[in-house]
Amino acid sequence: MAAYIARRLIWVVFLLFVITLITFVIFSVLPSGDPAVARAGRQPTPELVATIRAQLGLDKSKPVQFINYIGDLLPFVGHNGVYFGFSYQNNADVLPEILKRLPTTLFLTAGAVLLWLSIGIPIGVLSAVKTGSWMDRLAMGIALIFISAPVYFLGLVALYLFADDIGKFPILPGNSAYNSATTFPEKAEALIMPWCVLAAAFAAVYARFLRGNLIDTLQEDYIRTARAKGLSERRVVFRHGVRAAITPIVTLLGLDIGILLGGAILTETVFNIPGIGRYAFNAINNSDLPVIQGTVLVGAFFIVMMSLLVDILYAFIDPRVRY
């Protein structure tokens, strides 16, 4: 197991390097606007643009710019006092800005994950056990609706219906409540609606996915053997069926958590939540290349680390898995 983890960690370093290179090529080498012109303001003079380009290091060749950026990342102490690059728009190092927003994204992700697991898994198990019943049809029909609805659409509908400032039924805090919240209960209350919106589509996906896996698993020979031995149906379903059917769900959960930790861009933008996703959205609008690179790299880091964690968990969930 230790050798396997060591190999995976080496692969993580290589993968992050490739992602950094691809991001740099997309936003720096390909035509995407000049950050110096964007920072110079309206009707800039050529001299001002040239000065800004020299200050930001944009007058150097692309390979030198990329090497300098890698120098910001490798030691984790910054290149020339800069950490993860320097934001053109905010006049601040990127890494401290990301770390400042990380707790908000963690809080949003943790609440949404708990909510969609507590909804999606029971519904998936119930639908698999009651296949073809009216409960199964109703649950899968609702799940299909939530899967088909984009997150930004659900968010806008939720605000229109339930926000305490513009909603028709003002029962939940609106999209500016989190910014004004100071205590933990206030922040949790402000995230109730984003949690529900973010969890809706994920819970529907997990319910349908688990239902399909569990239906197939319950047809296996070892399930028939367990029933023939006189085990209760509850024990057969949960001890033998769900344990085998939930393994792919763990993979899906790891990837989803990694993606959300990298920034739930749509949810954070709709509800005006100051997380990593909102930070990346503003950077894209402002062509702030270092911030885009930093947020993409952080998101990739979370995804590959969650994938590694999932692979390790497999050995404990499924006895057949060995490394």
Instruction: Using the coordinates shown, work out and report the CATH topology of the largest domain.
Output: MetI-like fold
How many domains make up the coordinates?
A: 2
Number of helices: 16
Q: What global shape is seen?
A: globular
CATH architecture of the largest domain: Orthogonal Bundle
Terminal residue distance: 6 Å
Mean pLDDT: 81
Q: Structural class per helix/strand content?
A: mainly alpha
Written as H for each helix and E for each strand, in order along the chain, the element string is HHHHHHHHHHHHHHHH
Under CATH at level 1, the class of the largest domain stands as Mainly Alpha
Biggest pleated sheet: none
**CATH superfamily membership of the largest domain:** MetI-like
How many E strands? 0
Helix content: over 70%
Task: Give an overview in words.
The chain is mostly helical and 323 residues long. It has 2 domains: 2-73, no CATH class; 94-317, MetI-like fold. 74% of the residues lie in helices and 0% in strands. It has helices at residues 2-29, 35-40, 46-56, 62-73, 94-129, 134-148, 151-162, 177-180, 184-190, 192-217, 221-228, 233-245, 247-261, 265-270, 276-286, 289-317. Helix 5 (94-129) crosses helix 10 (192-217), helix 7 (151-162) packs across helix 10 and helix 15 packs antiparallel against helix 16. The protein is globular and about 85 Å long. The relative contact order is 0.14. The mean pLDDT is 81. One of its GO terms (cellular component) is plasma membrane. Belongs to the binding-protein-dependent transport system permease family. It holds the Pfam family BPD_transp_1_N. It is a multi-pass membrane protein. It is found in: Cell membrane.
